Amino acid sequence: MPSQPLIDFASMDLSQILRDSAEVRRLCPQRNRFAMLDAIVHSEGADGLVIGYKDVDSSDWWAPDHFPGRPIFPGALQIEGAAQLCAYHFLDSRPEMQHRLVGFGGVNDARFRGVVAPPARLYFAAKPVRLRSTMFTYQAQGFVEGKLVMEAEILGVIID
Asked: Model's pTM, two decimal places?
């Protein structure tokens, strides 16, 4: 059974970019092919909801091979995008930690509930569940055209 959506698309304006890709990269070191988060469009602070997106395109590096003739954005990359959003939010909420590197600690209860096919804007939404000084857990979801397509619990750890 799908979780309750973290986003109420009817009541939220997600058209304004709060942090562009350059600002995201300031805290998320993934570059080029592994940059899975293009912008932040909503943030409610340290304990609140954060929303970002990834524009999925048929010219992306994975598209010719997954699946030839019918590209589908890989679930592993969806999880990576959600993890980057969680890491960004964790560090953005803690200026004293912004020199640290966050690593992927794990994923629980991942479910894929729809296909993400280009062209698409995949919105990632995340909310902290448990925050510690060197690790965190977030509830994360992905949406395309308002439909829940992915959900997971993301764990992150400070690795340096």
From this structure: 0.96
